[in-house]
Design brief:
- The chain is α/β, with parallel strands linked by helices.
- Among the domains are: 66 residues; 179 residues, P-loop containing nucleotide triphosphate hydrolases (Rossmann fold, 3-Layer(aba) Sandwich), CATH 3.40.50.300.
- The protein has 13 helices and 11 strands.
- An 8-stranded mixed sheet has the order 6-5-7-4-8-9-10-11, sandwiched between helices. It has a 3-stranded antiparallel sheet with strand order 1-3-2.
- The protein starts with a strand and ends with a helix.
């Protein structure tokens, strides 16, 4: 039998799945789920695409219902219009097929899951987890539940899923390269990620609070008044602050201030169209005594976070710092990056207050970012 794939739009994923199940049958498999783009928002907030065999397909209760489900109006051709009507109808069907194809190419795919697991899959996908991780996490959690021959229980599946996510996360709030005589920490990441504010928070908590001689270095000469902002903070904190415009200047500053046992370096935000900045700073930052932390904002989508992480690979970051956690409820992308790279998360930042809005990363703190919304809701589904 040839499989049939259809899209359903609704205000919630659950509503769209319910409509899809009524029309396509209980055997239908969820292929993908996504939040619609602004241009498609009139169709509904969410689109789900399901697939089933032709023999299980059910007709909608009425033509009006079918139009509402698909989010499109049926074309009207005058009676007796002959070949022109047929041409217009053919064009309409071709355009509809092209629209569906483009939509499927543009959205991230959610793996097909058994009926008793796809609710969790939808919730994880809506929390912005990597599609590949959605399948892997739920499969491993289901294996934990059914491995001893017991029947799959949703409450236990939820608990095992949390356990599985936690087991794949690593945390380490220590700064400074292992075995180095002093702690030299460089914060790198995309522009607007919160590096400067995070650096000041760390300078207060990890430098001044421990009464160690501290130095702040700013290499961000591209953003207007970035260095002035750090100088102002340094003056308030009573620590030294210098601007280093080149990697050579950084090396000289580190040699001149060998008495400073804690050094924080603020690098400029490096975008995807600035490979020359990456190649310029990589040789200096890969020195063994420098501990590089990649700062990632929670406001970026999972796909963008993954691309950013790959872009900063030449700098060899050893840790991840998550910022802007107070500005989103979808933190699955951050955890996906942490799990897929295997890098430990060092700190979590949720606000602009210095130095209060920063905390050392823990597995409990990371799970708290996604536990309340996607998993509790899934258990009740």
């Amino acid at each position: 039998m040839i499989p049939i794939r259809k899209s359903f739009f609704a205000e919630t994923v659950e509503s769209a799945i319910a409509v899809a199940t009524r029309q396509m049958g209980a055997e239908a498999i969820l292929v993908q789920s996504r939040r619609t783009e602004p241009a498609e928002r009139h169709l509904g907030l969410y689109e789900v695409i399901v697939e089933t065999e032709a023999r299980t397909l059910r007709q909608p209760e009425s033509a009006t219902q079918a139009n509402r489900i698909e989010g499109e109006s049926a074309p009207h051709f005058p009676a007796g219009s002959g070949s022109r009507s047929k041409e217009l109808e053919l064009i309409h069907h071709e355009l509809t097929a092209m629209r569906d194809l483009l939509a499927r190419c543009a959205v991230r795919m959610v793996p097909a899951l058994p009926a008793d697991q796809f609710h969790l899959g939808v919730q994880l996908a809506n929390a912005d987890f990597s599609p590949a991780l959605v399948e892997s996490l739920i499969h491993s959690a289901a294996q934990r539940v059914t491995g001893d021959g017991t029947i799959l229980n949703q409450a236990r599946l939820q608990r095992e899923l949390v356990t599985e996510i936690g087991s794949r996360l690593s945390v380490d709030a220590e700064i400074g390269a292992s075995g180095a005589e002093r702690k030299i920490v460089a914060l790198v990441g995309p522009a607007g990620g919160g590096k400067t504010t995070t650096l000041v928070k760390l300078a207060v908590g990890m430098g001044l609070a421990k009464h160690t001689p501290t130095l702040i270095l700013s290499a961000d000469t591209y953003r207007v008044a970035a260095a002035d902002q750090l100088r102002a903070y340094a003056a308030i904190l009573g620590v030294a602050c210098e601007v280093v415009e080149t990697p050579g200047a950084l090396v000289r500053a580190l040699e001149e201030h060998r008495s400073k046992t804690t050094v924080f370096l603020d690098l400029p935000g490096i975008g995807p169209r600035e490979p020359e900045l990456m190649s310029e700073w990589a040789p200096a930052l890969t020195r063994p005594e420098i501990d590089v932390h990649l700062v990632l904002p929670a406001t970026m989508r999972c796909s963008d976070l993954i691309r950013a992480t790959r872009r900063f690979e030449p700098l060899r970051p050893s840790h991840l710092i998550f910022t802007h956690l107070d500005e989103t409820t979808s933190c699955g992308g951050l955890l996906s990056v942490a799990m897929e790279t295997g890098r430990p998360v060092s700190f979590l930042c949720a606000g602009q207050s210095v130095p209060e809005d920063i905390e050392a990363a823990t597995r409990t703190g990371l799970l708290r970012l996604i536990g309340a919304v996607p998993l509790t809701a899934a258990a009740a589904a």
